[in-house]
Amino acid sequence: MLNLDGDTMSAALNQKVGAVIDMRAYAAATAPSSDWLQGRAKPAFADAATQVAAFALRGEGQVEALPTDEFVLVLAGRLEIESDAGTLVIEPDNGAAVPVGTSFQWRASDDLLAIVYAAPTQAPGSPALSVLIDKNAPLSPSNPPPPENLLSPAPTCRGNSDYRSANQEFACGTWDSTPYRRRQIPYRQVELMLLLEGKVTFSDDRGSVTFKKGDVFMFVRGDGCEWLSEEYVKKVFAIQRPVA
């Protein structure tokens, strides 16, 4: 399923900023399928550690043992995942983490469209069972960007991880921040985001793009871009960042 030769594939979109992909636009043309693993669109991004694609599942099916950790973000329709954790119901604009090795049945509505983020690892993380993202979970203080990268006063940032992989490189959850501006920096991570509140503008030497509440977008490894948020922002995230 994963491209293991280290090559990167970007979606064939008119990206205004090289490091950022509009994931609703990318997923819009995804063909329906009844196969969880093989019925995915060409990835928006893939390398040895990450694959981010879309699927439009129809009907129901079974996965005997998931080969990677996965995060599924539903854009439209409804998806049910039945496993040892019980039945998770994923509605639009929410997601769930499914650990590697999980056996589950799935059921999809006739209008399902979702982003699926896969990250290889050797063992289930924490928790070891499938978990729905809690968008209302209490948030704990988290580190703001380093001072040398900021073009504004330091923001106050908070976060919560609903799932973290066994290798500590993949996590899913929620995060918020007060306004700030950060200069363009290279990215080691691949991060999928759904904005729950606020708006953010990203820019590089190619131009700029602004995402607002309800938009879904992804940062990819590479040259990065500048971040500008002039109001409070909150997001659901799934991120893969190498430990070393």
Explain this structure to me?
It is a single chain. With 244 residues, the chain is an all-beta fold. It has 2 domains: 103 residues, Jelly Rolls; 101 residues, Jelly Rolls (Sandwich), CATH 2.60.120.10. The protein has 1 helix and 22 strands. It has a 7-stranded antiparallel β-sheet. Strands 2, 3, 4, 6, 9, 11 and 12 form a 7-stranded mixed β-sheet that branches. Strands 5-10-7-8 form a 4-stranded antiparallel β-sheet, with no helix packed on it. A hairpin with a 2-residue loop joins strand 7 and strand 8. The longest helix has 5 residues. It is globular and about 50 Å long.
Work out the strand percent: over 45%
Q: How many DSSP-defined strands?
A: 22
Shape: globular
Structural class: mainly beta
Helix content: under 10%
Unreliably modeled segments: 1-12
- Under the CATH scheme, which class of the largest domain? Mainly Beta
CATH fold field value of the largest domain: Jelly Rolls
The strand order across the widest sheet is 1-20-17-22-15-14-13
- How many helices? The count is 1
The CATH superfamily label of the largest domain reads: Jelly Rolls
Please state the average pLDDT score: 94
Q: What string, H for helix and E for strand, traces the elements in order?
A: EHEEEEEEEEEEEEEEEEEEEEE
At CATH's second level, what is the architecture of the largest domain? Sandwich
Our count of domains comes out at 2
How large is the radius of gyration? 17 Å
Ends distance: 24 Å
